[in-house]
């Protein structure tokens, strides 16, 4: 059986005759964290919306586990920079929303959610309202809701960019920890080079007008990265390479 | 933690001003500056309230019943209209401008027609209250529905939420603030409409009582009924505030922070 979960094949998109994406192809294996890196306006979010099925593409296909899901929404779960938590629902109520929408009764759904709150570092917050939580906790709650939607692929569109530097770093570490405990494949859309290098197994760099996949970088296995990967020459080399690609665009 | 007493601060300043006004009023009448038959003293008003209490309560009960029934139906109609206007764009475009125009018709002008059509009982009063209260509710609820973040609606849609579920889980709770803002307006409108409709024609109610004591030049009783109507409105407002606190528990939780 193929390990490929998501395949984007030759996707192109124009807005008002203006090509935005040209012949984008990428693949994501089961369990991988793949980053899609590009500057603002590079069509990252357009591609995100095409994969999520929220936007139609002009050419190309989106395949999920070998099946053509081009233009179909609800096949992958996604999360945006805004947490989109409902202020009038408790954390348990927010996180359990995908279960409730699938007709599960409230009590059963809340019971199911409790152990996950612990895994996601939200133990004890179930009866609290989002406004009482810090930005990092809210993002974790939003991520848990995304996960409980129960789709194998999660698309994250700059999920941590509204957080301060330290919280963001903690969230990166936390995400790498939690991803080992749950079965989830991630496509991370970001403009943050450091974030992509810290989180991803592979990085696709989007550059040019219209945007193409300028390069695909395979990062060293996580076990070989060591404690301070961000301070190593390897990390800096990758960063230099990405910067030159993005600046040349 | 949850049961902690909420610290209620009472603002005494308006009560002080009110007390001073009443004292001044009492003095003006007691010292004969204004003749008593034209302006009764506050004490006369209280006396009138007490001596006529049976009649006042009986009429108040009628007015209150009309107000509550009319308000309830008006609210339900307003919410229903907001929901269908939110759901069907063409209905919004077709009905909304007409609703706005309909509000320029003065209620005092429709009241006599309603009385002639529907008689002297409760029905024309209730209908008038419905006509005046559904509008603020419909407009505000619609504004609340439309303020929903489109990204949130898209997320709900991808999670497989039907329109009905989006309404229940997102739009209705989100519009609660708008709803209560409109309910405060609707409540005052409702009491006023009830009294106005009773003035125009009827057998019972505070408005009817008012026209009777007016014809008798009983100023003390006229003031008494005004005081009673004010108290009734205030009580209904208090009820609305209580309802809001009960239905919006997240507001309390946040305020405690």
Automatic annotation (TrEMBL), chain A:
Annotated Pfam families: ABC_tran
Gene3D superfamilies (UniProt xref): P-loop containing nucleotide triphosphate hydrolases
Domain ABC transporter: 6-233
Top-level taxon of the source organism: Bacteria
InterPro entries: AAA+_ATPase (IPR003593), ABC_transporter-like_ATP-bd (IPR003439), ABC_transporter-like_CS (IPR017871), ABC_transporter_ATP-bind (IPR050166), P-loop_NTPase (IPR027417)
Keyword Transport set for record: yes
GO MF annotations, alphabetized: ATP binding
Keywords: ATP-binding, Nucleotide-binding, Transport
Protein name in the entry: ABC transporter ATP-binding protein
The species this protein was found in: Loigolactobacillus jiayinensis
TrEMBL record, chain B:
Pfam family, one: BPD_transp_1
Keywords: Cell membrane, Membrane, Transmembrane, Transmembrane helix, Transport
Location of the protein in the cell: Cell membrane
Domain (ABC transmembrane type-1): residue spans on this chain: 60-240
Membrane topology: Multi-pass membrane protein
Transmembrane region(s): 12-39, 59-84, 96-120, 126-145, 182-201, 222-240
PROSITE patterns: ABC_TM1
UniProt keyword Membrane present: yes
InterPro entries for the chain: MetI-like (IPR000515), MetI-like_sf (IPR035906)
Record bears the keyword Transport: yes
Family designation: Belongs to the binding-protein-dependent transport system permease family.
Name of this protein: ABC transporter permease
Lineage: Bacteria, Bacillati, Bacillota, Bacilli, Lactobacillales
């Amino acid at each position: 059986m193929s390990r490929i979960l998501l395949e984007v094949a030759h996707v192109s998109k124009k807005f008002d005759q203006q090509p935005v994406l040209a012949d984008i192809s990428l693949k994501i294996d089961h369990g991988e964290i793949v980053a899609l890196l590009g500057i603002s306006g590079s069509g990252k979010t357009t591609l995100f919306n095409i994969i999520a099925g929220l936007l139609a593409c002009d050419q190309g296909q989106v395949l999920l586990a070998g099946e053509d899901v081009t233009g179909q929404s609800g096949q992958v779960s996604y999360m945006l920079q805004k947490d989109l938590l409902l202020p009038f629902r408790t954390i348990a109520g927010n996180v359990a929303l995908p279960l409730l929408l699938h007709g599960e009764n409230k009590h059963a759904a809340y019971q199911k959610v409790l152990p996950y709150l612990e895994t996601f570092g939200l133990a004890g917050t179930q009866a609290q309202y989002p406004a009482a939580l810090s930005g990092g906790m809210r993002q974790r709650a939003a991520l848990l809701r995304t996960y409980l939607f129960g789709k194998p692929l999660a698309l994250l569109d700059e999920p941590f960019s509204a957080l301060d530097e330290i919280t963001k770093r903690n969230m990166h570490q936390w995400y790498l920890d939690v991803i080992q405990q749950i079965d989830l494949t991630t496509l991370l859309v970001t403009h943050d080079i450091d974030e992509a290098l810290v989180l991803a197994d592979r990085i696709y760099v989007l550059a040019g007008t219209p945007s193409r996949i300028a390069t695909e970088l395979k990062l060293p296995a996580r076990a070989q990265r060591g404690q301070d990967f961000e301070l190593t020459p390897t990390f800096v080399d990758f960063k230099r390479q990405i910067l030159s690609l993005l600046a040349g665009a | 933690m949850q049961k902690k007493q909420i610290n209620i601060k009472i603002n005494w300043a308006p009560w002080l001003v009110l007390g001073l006004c009443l004292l001044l009023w009492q003095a003006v009448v007691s010292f004969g500056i204004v003749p008593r038959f034209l302006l009764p003293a506050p004490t006369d008003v209280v006396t009138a309230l007490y001596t006529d209490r049976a009649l006042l309560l009986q009429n108040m009960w009628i007015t209150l019943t009309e107000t509550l029934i009319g308000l309830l139906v008006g609210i339900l109609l307003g919410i229903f209209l907001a929901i269908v206007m939110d759901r069907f764009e063409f209905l919004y475009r077709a009905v909304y401008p007409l609703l706005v125009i309909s509000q320029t018709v003065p209620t005092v002008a429709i009241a006599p027609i309603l009385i002639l059509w529907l008689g002297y009982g409760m029905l024309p009063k209730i209908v008038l209250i419905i006509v005046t209260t559904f509008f603020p509710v419909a407009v505000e609820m619609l504004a609340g529905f439309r303020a929903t973040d489109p990204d949130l609606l898209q997320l709900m849609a991808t999670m497989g939420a039907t329109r009905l579920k989006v309404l229940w889980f997102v739009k209705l709770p989100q519009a609660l603030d708008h709803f209560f803002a409109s309910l405060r307006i609707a409540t005052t409108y409702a009491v006023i409409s009830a009294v106005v409709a009773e003035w125009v024609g009827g057998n019972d109610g505070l408005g009817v009582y008012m026209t009777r004591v007016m014809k008798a030049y009983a100023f003390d009783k006229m003031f008494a009924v005004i005081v009673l109507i004010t108290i009734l409105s205030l009580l209904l407002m208090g009820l609305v505030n209580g309802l809001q606190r009960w239905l919006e528990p997240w507001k309390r939780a946040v305020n405690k922070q």
